[in-house]
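Model it.
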Amino acid sequence: MRIKKEYDSEFKINAVKLSEDIGSSKAAKELGLPITTLYGWRNKYKNGLLGIETGGRKTKKAMNLAEENIELKKQLRQRETELREKDRTIDILKEASIFFAKGQKK
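Modeled.
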């Protein structure tokens, strides 16, 4: 029967950083971890789900894919609105410059 080891978040993050530096296989071997465990930690870290805990709270809040998708769509709509406003401003300025240019020629 296997005894399940528990590691704190700081150890996991350091293990992930080590695996990025020297490779997952070598890091797992040096730390005495199963490679699959390290891969799981890397995926969680990449997705923002692995954070250093302080006082029982994670310092980094991770968005799930649906929340991230909603946020990105909101930002896209905002940028499209800003772009339309800027296009209108440019059109108005073009018309004004033509109007004033005609006035200068007289």
